[in-house]
Amino acid sequence: MKIDQSQPLEYSTDQNQLNILGFWIFLGAEIMLFATLFTAYFTLQGRTGSGPTPGEIFEITPVLIETIVLLTSSFTIGLGVHAMRLGRKNAMLTFFGITLLLGLVFLGVEIFEFTHYYHVGATYQTSAFTAALLTTLGTHGAHVTLGLFWGLFIMIQVKKRGINPATANKSFIFSLYWHFLDVVWIFIFSFIYLKGMM
Amino acid sequence: MEFFERFAIPHPSPAIYASMVAIAVVSIGIVVGLTYFKKWGYLWREWLTTVDHKKIGIMYLISALLMLFRGGADAIMMRAQLATPDAKLLDAQHYNEIFTTHGVVMIMFMAMPFIFAFMNLIVPLQIGARDVAFPRLNALSFWLFFVGAMLFNISFVIGGSPDAGWTSYFPLAGNDFSESVGTNYYMLALQISGIGSLMTGINMCTTILKMRAPGMTLMKMPMFTWSAFIANIIIVFAFPVLTIALLMGTTDRLFGTHFFATTNGGMDMLWANFFWIWGHPEVYILILPAFGIYSEIISTFSRRNLYGYKSMVASMVLISLLSFLVWTHHFFTMGQGALTNSIFSITTMAIAVPTGVKIFNWLFTMWKGKIRFTVPMLYSVAFIPLFTIGGVTGVMLAMSAADYQYHNTMFLVAHFHNTIIPGVVFAMLAGLTYYWPKFFGFMLNEKIGKSTFWLLTVGFVLAFFPMYITGLDGQARRMYTYSEATGFGPLNMVSFVGAALMAIGFVTIVYNVYYSYKNSPRNIGSDPWDARSLEWATHTPVPEYNFARIPQISSSETFWDSKKNGHQLFKGELKEIHMPNNSGVPFIMGVIFFIAGFSFVFALWVPAVIALIGILVCLALRSFEQDHGRHISVEEIKETEAKIGGAK
């Protein structure tokens, strides 16, 4: 394996560069995936049938907590990648750990939010609007859940194997994924929650 | 007993029972044969665990040919039923199932793997790479496609075929009107193979962007690689739409949501829109690589460089953009209003412009060329006028006002077969004949190949041109019969004769492979067609590392330059080559996906959840795995090179 010292560690081998480009293209596909979900949501948001409307079920508090927590986690993973580039393993692991904890809090609040919807009669089967809402949020939430496991696996590998081209590459790609989920959340927050509560 | 009743066929017929027996006999035959000849180990080591793009390409090729016969059997049954008025060969339900599976199988499980076969076989060779960017992901893509295809194909013997058309429009495809599990099969089989296609798209884009040999700028890529690149970009942006549409369709059917239902706010047209936002780009995913293959073949057999390289690239880019802007033309009659219809009419007609540019480029490539009418060239030459007719009828359909007359008639069926068969199928067969010697070491027989070509071309014209007339006269598509008074009888009989000729044509391909395997000479060298691009610069058969030395590129026809203008293709010393290790994980994941898909089809939640956990466990194991590949030493390379024809 040729290691190019002039590049950051995560870009330092040919395969690493391929992995990062491949992941960017994957994120392109993910954008289309969420764009389709948003399209469905915008089309169906007014089609509530006999169920509740967006304004009747949205609550600002859990949504704000989720937003703050997720945005903060995007910041901390940025610090984690910065620490990785400085070669400071413990600092990196700490920031990655904080990121995942914040992700876990996000997920907990989201589960609470879903149970709230269930109690106010907005279930998956209630109307086209609720189905579109829960599918969009659920797809994002499933991404976060998968990310928690993935991030945990990467932390274990960094802890065991140290910061090397392979683990640095994985950590960097994971940070791209995490930032992407944050970007999607900003759209969810603005165009689903805020718009629905206005 | 109640548990097993769900697996019963809702509309059994003697043909289905016969198929069950045939499937059982063939499966037992395969198992017995593999055991008797002690080939299990060989199968596992060389094929099921392979990550070599050439072997994966060959597996795609075999699957595509098998599915061609499955879809072809459906086609011949439909034409036989319609050959005479008031025929009783198939009942309405059976006919519905057959046109549904015919469409899905031919598009998703025949045409798609066929183009993936050529992308896998050719692209790394054309760009001078040793493999694709993510070899193991590539294997996983194949296995997901393969289990998706198998899942779809068992539907007609376990639980019932889908019967809502290949477009599976809601509310027809909802639980109220499609009660059997058939449409569940549709949703899940397409989902699984679609994930595979998406991963191929990512893989191929990365490969083409990052792994080209030194000197090969984007505008020096061979035309097939360009077409594959554009097609894969379309895959990356179109398939996620299908993923979501299928997800919603699945939850509507399995969990009682109301995305596409007619109650509780659901919107059936949302499915139609999503389906075609994926579906129309999908058409170009199929046709662009076909155009690429024609470009290679036409320039090789005209002994001229491709005319208008830059305009070829520009027109493909333009087609890829326009392909996302035309989806509404599939349902002009669904009441969007005049303005929307007019806009989509214009975008649709606009696609004829870049396509026309390509047609003229091919003609100018042949102009004053020294044309050799080999089998691949015959297909290419027939393609140009036939495809143009298909394109012109496409422009007719694009006129939204006139479309009210053509919509849902055999005219439409004639149109899209007229583009897909001379466009895609002929290209695949031309490519098959053209690239066969590269991968199997012998040529297919020209004489048999030419009779295949004539059978298919004459058969195609007889089968589909009459449909233009019956369609304009009002024969509806997807109707299982018609009365004698309509007068459609004679022309439908002509169609049947054409379909039968095509069926004979396809059988002669199999005979050709058998005959050529027995009789063709093996000393054909590495460049039997006197071709122009890089895939012909390496040995036949292609060594696993493709090129002992990475080639130096001077133009889009580097190999031709090296033959005629003394360009030195391979420079420098041999170096150790790094190759990826084989892995059984993609195959195992494929099997688990199959179990998951099957369990979801029948709402068997326990195995479904176990299988999903199994998939996640595979992903986790992959995350922890440390696989550095292996190295082929210089001595080993020298040995291989000496064995297969001397170092070049």
UniProtKB/TrEMBL annotation, chain A:
Kindly indicate whether the keyword Membrane belongs to this entry: yes
Recorded E.C. number(s)? 1.10.3.-
Q: Which UniProt keywords apply?
A: Cell membrane, Membrane, Oxidoreductase, Transmembrane, Transmembrane helix
Query: Where would one find the signal peptide in this protein?
Result: none
- Record-annotated Heme-copper oxidase subunit III family profile domain positions: 21-197
Subcellular compartments:
Cell membrane
Q: Which Pfam families match?
A: COX3
Please state the protein's primary subcellular location. membrane
UniProt record similarity statement: Belongs to the cytochrome c oxidase subunit 3 family.
Record-given protein name: Quinol oxidase subunit 3
List the source organism: Ureibacillus galli
Gene (name only): qoxC
TrEMBL record, chain B:
UniProt membrane topology term? Multi-pass membrane protein
Q: Where does it primarily localize?
A: membrane
Q: Identify the keywords attached in UniProt to this record, alphabetized.
A: Cell membrane, Copper, Electron transport, Heme, Hydrogen ion transport, Ion transport, Iron, Membrane, Metal-binding, Oxidoreductase, Respiratory chain, Transmembrane, Transmembrane helix, Transport
Q: Which domain of life is it from?
A: Bacteria
Q: Cite the Pfam families for this sequence.
A: COX1
Q: Which pathway does it serve?
A: Energy metabolism; oxidative phosphorylation
Q: Where is the Cytochrome oxidase subunit I profile domain?
A: 38-554
List, alphabetically, the CDD domains matched.
Ubiquinol_Oxidase_I (cd01662)
Reactions performed catalytically? 2 a quinol + O2 = 2 a quinone + 2 H2O
Where in or outside the cell is it found? Cell membrane
Q: What is its EC number?
A: 1.10.3.-
What this protein needs as a cofactor is: Cu cation; ferriheme a
Give TM segment ranges.
Answer: 15-37, 58-78, 98-125, 137-158, 185-209, 229-250, 270-294, 306-327, 339-364, 376-399, 419-436, 448-469, 489-514, 584-602
Cofactor binding mode and count: Binds a copper B center.
The record's section on InterPro entries has:
Cyt_c_oxase-like_su1_dom (IPR023616), Cyt_c_oxase-like_su1_sf (IPR036927), Cyt_C_Oxase_1 (IPR000883), Cyt_c_Oxase_su1_BS (IPR023615), QoxB (IPR014233)
Q: Which Gene3D superfamilies match?
A: 1.10.287.70, Cytochrome c oxidase-like, subunit I domain
Q: Which PANTHER family match?
A: CYTOCHROME BO(3) UBIQUINOL OXIDASE SUBUNIT 1, CYTOCHROME C OXIDASE SUBUNIT 1
The entry's family comment says: Belongs to the heme-copper respiratory oxidase family.
Q: What does the UniProt record say this protein does?
A: Catalyzes quinol oxidation with the concomitant reduction of oxygen to water.
Indicate what this protein is called per its UniProt record.
Quinol oxidase subunit 1
- Gene of this entry: qoxB
